[in-house]
Amino acid sequence: MTTQNRGVVGTDGWYRIRALIVDDSSVMRKIVERSLRQAGVELEKVTEAGNGAEALASLHDNPVDLILCDINMPVDAGYGRAGICSPRWQNWKAPRVFRL
User: Torsions phi, psi of 79, nearest 5?
Assistant: First the structure.
């Protein structure tokens, strides 16, 4: 498999997405992952985080193509205090998707 700017290309030529799912509910994180798979999204790897701080720490070690983030969490809410949308990430190529 080779890594591209977006996703990982498998030996079959199809892109597989590396996703980060951020939610304070572990049940909701599994529901989101299952929904992506049921929608036909090919997932190479799914990384989970329980809050924004965990998400930022995870991004240093796990490159991702897609971030699905709950913006209403009791600790380190999604994009606010977590800093995922801060200027230091502006050159980062992964799209950000926030779940309400």
Answer: -95, -20
| DSSP 8-class letter at 70 | E
Q: Is the pLDDT of residue 44 over 50?
A: yes
Any residues with CB less than 8 A from the CB of 27 and at least 6 apart, and which? none
Tokens found for residue 40: 């036909």
Candidate CATH numbers 2.60.40.420, 3.40.50.2300, 3.40.50.1110, 3.40.50.300; the one for domain 19-99: 3.40.50.2300
State which H helix or E strand residue 34 sits in: helix 26-38
Q: Is the pTM of this model over 0.85?
A: no
